[in-house]
Amino acid sequence: MARARKSLVKPRLIAFNRQAGRCFYCEQPMWMNNLDEFASSHRLKPSQAMHLKCTGEHLQAHSEGGKADRTNIVAVCAYCNRLRHQRKEPPTPEDYKALVNRRLSQGKWYGLRL
Ligand SMILES: [Zn+2]
Questions:
Q1: What distance in angstroms lies between residue 3's CA and the mean position of ligand 1's atoms?
Q2: How many whole angstroms from 57 Cα to the centroid of ligand 1?
Q3: Is 112 contained in some domain?
Q4: What is the SS3 assignment for 82?
Q5: Residue 72 C-alpha to ligand 1 middle, in angstroms?
Q6: Structural domain contains residue 2
Q7: How far apart are the CA of 81 and the centre of ligand 1, in A?
Q8: Which of 3, 32, 96, 99: CA 20 to 30 A from 24?
Q9: If you measure from the C-alpha of residue 76 to the centroid of ligand 1, how many angstroms do you get, rounded to a whole number?
Q10: For the segment 60-93, what is each residue's pLDDT rounded down to a tens digit?
Q11: pLDDT value at position 57?
Protein backbone atom coordinates (compact mmCIF):
# COMPACT_ATOMS: atom_id res chain seq x y z
CA MET A 1 0.00 0.00 0.00
CA ALA A 2 1.26 3.40 -0.94
CA ARG A 3 -0.47 5.27 1.83
CA ALA A 4 1.46 5.54 5.08
CA ARG A 5 -1.60 5.70 7.24
CA LYS A 6 -4.25 3.06 7.03
CA SER A 7 -7.83 4.12 6.78
CA LEU A 8 -9.81 3.95 9.99
CA VAL A 9 -13.07 3.36 8.19
CA LYS A 10 -13.21 -0.41 8.44
CA PRO A 11 -11.83 -0.90 11.98
CA ARG A 12 -14.10 1.93 13.13
CA LEU A 13 -17.15 0.19 11.68
CA ILE A 14 -16.11 -3.09 13.30
CA ALA A 15 -15.68 -1.33 16.65
CA PHE A 16 -19.01 0.47 16.27
CA ASN A 17 -20.79 -2.84 15.75
CA ARG A 18 -18.85 -4.60 18.51
CA GLN A 19 -19.82 -1.82 20.96
CA ALA A 20 -23.46 -1.90 19.85
CA GLY A 21 -23.12 1.65 18.58
CA ARG A 22 -22.13 3.08 21.96
CA CYS A 23 -19.13 5.25 22.81
CA PHE A 24 -16.22 3.38 24.40
CA TYR A 25 -15.86 6.16 26.98
CA CYS A 26 -19.25 7.66 27.82
CA GLU A 27 -21.34 4.71 26.53
CA GLN A 28 -23.86 6.99 24.88
CA PRO A 29 -25.30 5.99 21.51
CA MET A 30 -23.55 7.34 18.43
CA TRP A 31 -24.34 7.68 14.74
CA MET A 32 -22.25 7.12 11.65
CA ASN A 33 -24.07 8.25 8.53
CA ASN A 34 -27.53 9.20 9.67
CA LEU A 35 -27.29 12.48 11.57
CA ASP A 36 -30.85 13.59 10.83
CA GLU A 37 -32.38 10.26 11.68
CA PHE A 38 -30.35 9.99 14.90
CA ALA A 39 -31.22 13.54 15.91
CA SER A 40 -34.92 13.12 15.35
CA SER A 41 -35.16 9.71 17.01
CA HIS A 42 -33.47 11.12 20.14
CA ARG A 43 -35.18 14.51 19.88
CA LEU A 44 -31.89 16.34 19.53
CA LYS A 45 -30.94 19.35 17.50
CA PRO A 46 -28.43 18.45 14.77
CA SER A 47 -25.93 20.68 16.59
CA GLN A 48 -26.29 18.49 19.70
CA ALA A 49 -26.18 15.26 17.75
CA MET A 50 -22.91 16.35 16.13
CA HIS A 51 -21.18 15.65 19.45
CA LEU A 52 -22.21 12.01 19.19
CA LYS A 53 -20.79 11.35 15.76
CA CYS A 54 -18.81 8.11 15.78
CA THR A 55 -15.06 8.54 15.40
CA GLY A 56 -12.21 6.05 15.51
CA GLU A 57 -9.79 6.24 18.41
CA HIS A 58 -6.41 4.53 18.72
CA LEU A 59 -6.05 2.91 22.14
CA GLN A 60 -2.31 3.01 21.64
CA ALA A 61 -1.46 6.25 19.86
CA HIS A 62 -0.52 6.12 16.22
CA SER A 63 2.61 8.11 17.11
CA GLU A 64 3.61 5.37 19.58
CA GLY A 65 3.29 2.61 17.04
CA GLY A 66 -0.39 1.84 17.59
CA LYS A 67 -1.90 0.14 14.58
CA ALA A 68 -5.10 1.00 12.81
CA ASP A 69 -6.53 -2.46 13.23
CA ARG A 70 -9.46 -3.94 15.06
CA THR A 71 -7.46 -4.68 18.20
CA ASN A 72 -6.34 -1.09 18.63
CA ILE A 73 -9.31 0.92 17.36
CA VAL A 74 -12.37 1.68 19.43
CA ALA A 75 -15.40 3.74 18.47
CA VAL A 76 -15.79 6.92 20.50
CA CYS A 77 -18.06 9.92 20.15
CA ALA A 78 -16.67 13.14 18.72
CA TYR A 79 -17.06 14.86 22.07
CA CYS A 80 -15.02 12.37 24.09
CA ASN A 81 -12.43 12.16 21.33
CA ARG A 82 -11.97 15.94 21.10
CA LEU A 83 -11.73 16.47 24.84
CA ARG A 84 -9.22 13.69 25.34
CA HIS A 85 -6.90 15.18 22.76
CA GLN A 86 -7.33 18.69 24.10
CA ARG A 87 -5.52 17.63 27.24
CA LYS A 88 -1.81 18.32 27.32
CA GLU A 89 -0.98 14.75 28.17
CA PRO A 90 -3.80 12.58 26.90
CA PRO A 91 -4.70 10.16 29.71
CA THR A 92 -4.61 6.42 29.09
CA PRO A 93 -7.89 5.03 27.74
CA GLU A 94 -8.63 3.38 31.11
CA ASP A 95 -8.00 6.59 33.06
CA TYR A 96 -9.96 8.65 30.60
CA LYS A 97 -12.91 6.28 30.69
CA ALA A 98 -12.95 6.51 34.49
CA LEU A 99 -12.76 10.30 34.31
CA VAL A 100 -15.61 10.53 31.78
CA ASN A 101 -17.83 8.29 33.88
CA ARG A 102 -17.07 10.27 37.03
CA ARG A 103 -17.97 13.51 35.24
CA LEU A 104 -21.10 11.96 33.75
CA SER A 105 -22.34 10.85 37.16
CA GLN A 106 -21.74 14.38 38.45
CA GLY A 107 -23.65 15.86 35.51
CA LYS A 108 -20.49 17.52 34.24
CA TRP A 109 -20.15 15.80 30.88
CA TYR A 110 -22.01 16.11 27.65
CA GLY A 111 -24.58 13.69 28.97
CA LEU A 112 -27.75 13.58 26.95
CA ARG A 113 -29.12 10.83 29.19
CA LEU A 114 -30.01 8.73 26.21
ZN1 LIG B 1 -18.42 9.59 24.35
A1: 29
A2: 11
A3: no
A4: helix
A5: 17
A6: no
A7: 7
A8: 3
A9: 5
A10: 888 888 888 888 999 999 999 999 988 888 889 9
A11: 92
